[in-house]
Automatic annotation (TrEMBL):
It is an enzyme of class 2 (transferase). Residues 845-944 form the HTH araC/xylS-type domain. This is histidine kinase. The keyword Phosphoprotein applies. Residues 1-12 have a biased composition (Basic residues). Keywords: Membrane, Phosphoprotein, Transcription, Transcription regulation, Transmembrane, Transmembrane helix. Residues 442-659 form the Histidine kinase domain. Pfam families: HATPase_c (PF02518), HisKA (PF00512), HTH_18 (PF12833), Peripla_BP_4 (PF13407), Response_reg (PF00072). The keyword Magnesium does not apply.
Amino acid sequence: MPVVSKHPRLRRGTGATPTLPALTQPYSHPLNFSVTKHDWFRFLTFGVLALLVSCTTDTREPVYRIGFSQCTTNDAWRRAMLAGMEKELSFHPNVQFQMLDAKNNSALQRQQVQELIRQKVDLLLISPNQSGPLTAIAEAAYNQGIPVVILDRRTTSRLYTAYVGGNNQEVGRTAGQYAAQLLSGRGQVLEITGTPGSSPATDRTLGFRQALSSHASVQVVAQVLGDWQPASVLARLPSVLRAHPGVDLIFAHNDPMARAAHQVARQLGRAERLHIIGVDGLPGPGNGLQLVEDGVLKATLLYPTGGEEAIRTALRILRHEPYVKDNVLGTMVIDSLNVGTVRAQTQALVAQRQDLRRQQLRLKEQMRRYASQKITVYLLLASLMVATLLGALAWRSSRLNRRIREVLEGQNAQISAQHNQIAQLAEEARRSSEAKLRFFTNFSHELRTPLTLILGPVEDLLTNPSELTAAQRHDLQLVRRNTQRLLQLVNQLLDFRKIDVGKMAVRATQGNLVAFVRELMDVFEKTALRRGITFRFLPAEPVISLWFDGDILDKVFSNLLSNAFKYTPDGGHITVSMQRNAGTNTVQISVEDNGRGIAETDQPHIMRWFYQGSQPSANGSGLGLALADGLTRLHEGTLSFRSQPGHGSTFTVTLPLEKPTTFLDAELAHNTHAPNDLLDDEPAPLLDESPLARTTTTVLIIEDQEEVRNFLVQKLQPHFQVSTAADGATGLRQASETIPDVVVCDVNLPELSGLDVVAALKGDWRTSHIPLVLLTARNAPEQQIEGVQAGADLYLTKPFNPTFLVESLRTLLRNRDQQREHFRRELSVDTATVAPQRVDQKFLADLMAIIEANLDRSSLSVDDIARSMGISQMQLYRKVKALLGTGVIDCIQNLRLTKARQLLLQEGSTIAQVAYQTGFSSPSYFATLFKGKYQVSPSEFKALHTGH
């Protein structure tokens, strides 16, 4: 049935007709001058205005931009489609049409469609090369509000605005019925198909087989893959025809392949008794109608190109007129009985098209002449009227100027007084606002200490379940939730104050924004599953690298996602999309939901602090969106939104791809950062002076219970850099990716237990060196033995003493440093192989063997070693750094110098020979490095130990 498009993009016509307000009020000058005797001036003025309006009023349609992605233009049928489009477009000069040729390449076609989307065309026409690869990009365009018309070949999804094309199953059925009739219900058939995966090839085969299924004596004995190309048929068909000498009829999926089949049959001497049926039915030399007339083909099936209908449907959509979503074009058999009639009709249509083109050219020329003459006449008439008007106005102006000047002087004095009054009120408002902000800040600081003192003991009590009744636990959980909510509001107020006074700096690191947003979304997955919400992430590419502050963007996107889940009904959908904008060198991240939307009266104020709207949420504070907007602007980005009440909202964060000059490097900022923030008067925690208490030491906490996890973070964060994971699989992945200094893991984890995590970490050479601490409520001796046997370095039972945990971690880290020194001493060229008793020793033995085998190669690089060991450069660097406390390049250089020292002791060796044998690029460079390490030159060392 006809439908009307709802796409918001269709509202932005670029050529809307301008309108002027009606001049219906009687003329009265604001100065109340008496001008009755000059009414003729008024009428003359209105006459000039009416003339100019009639000259300039533009009644043309808006300008529409249509982008067309064609799978190929390398065949007559596709060129006929384009000719039909051009014919229809000739009636619509307001349409800007752009056609891109994909040359039968699905990957190229996807890129071309993405480019058309980036250009923001008003409507997208797609004739897919293959259905599957083009489905996702067509859906993405449709979801962005661009109307999508699929032409000829369907996609595998229904997410498009309209479809125009033939019914390929009907084409196949008609061909099958005609073939059965032609063979009198008995014979052998060979089918030549199009490209696999394209919907026409699939549907034509399906319809052809369905029609023949009712004729048991008509059998399809062979099928040849033609790929729509005659060359493929010429290469593959001869051997198949020789293998099946009884073939009576060939059905080809298009006329060019049918023509090639006739050429093969003629070469094999079987052209006289073979019936060949094609598909397309195009006029012109070498096409279907000519082939039927010449007897080359028995028949062809008309397959309309749909070019004209596609343009008509597109214009109905753009004009908001009713249209049909699925426009299926009919077919018919063209054989010797009706080919003359059809050819005559097509020739008449071609003649009409040529005549129409000539008439359009004449019409354009006449319109050009008419426009030129009309402009000339209007200019002359307007010049005459203007000259008359100027003379009258000059006389009148001399009388009015004096009175206007007097009135303006009085108005200037009044405006000056009002300006002084407004400035005074603005200063009072500024002082009042500053006092309010200072009050909020001071009050927030006063709240943080008691809230922390409430939250700490409550969490300590909740970590010991044996001492609490169910009612007590319920009450404590209620206290904790509301305390955390108060603390979150206090922190938001402090962030607001820091932004307001410009004391919050952006401490950025370079990373993958796609992975960062995906990790944030993981937190909301359970909520989405529980409420039946479709939660999707649609990044345009897998990696988008830029400099960003994870703490700031975490607050921004967490607020946006929390709002989306808050206002999206159960069973709704929330979509997060991300794509680059090459024109502005930015990246856009959108959070779209289908919730209740934002009322139009609230939209101008929704980003204001403490504004809750006409229908405030029961647990809203009016801080979230204002904080997200402030943090985004602090990050040199913008936060925008669009919303339609009852249909949901879309919030879009736009961030720069290049690092702004205002950003601070995260590591440098951390090292130079003062312990006391200018807005935070709480004292910094006192840290141990020992090297093991440095804040660069990283601890990974793997704990599924959020309360215990938060308690551990609270106790460890003053001493270490802490990261967390809520389950074993996530913790295992984080440990492999970030290589922390120590891991604290609970035993009872969902799915992958803590013992499994320990075994996996100790069995992986990347993480085998990391000290592991197991926390559990299981305190039986055999359970503790099981944990130690799994590879844990320490086994603590709950409840535990936080101070004891911190000191235990320091001891483990100190032991690891001592082990690193042991490995460093053990690693030398004198030792051929380190005994592979542990995974770490095996790793070092393999590393040393590879370096020794390539020691004479001056071009030996970290990438070469990583490839030989089957790992990445970053994994190799992190492992060597963790075990030896040095980089890979330094390790190679130390081994070369040690080997060179041995070679210098050999009789007859020269310094140049030793330099090249140990992989140094030149003797001088070797001598410099040797003296830097051993404080003597190679020649002095050789003379000292050999006497030469």
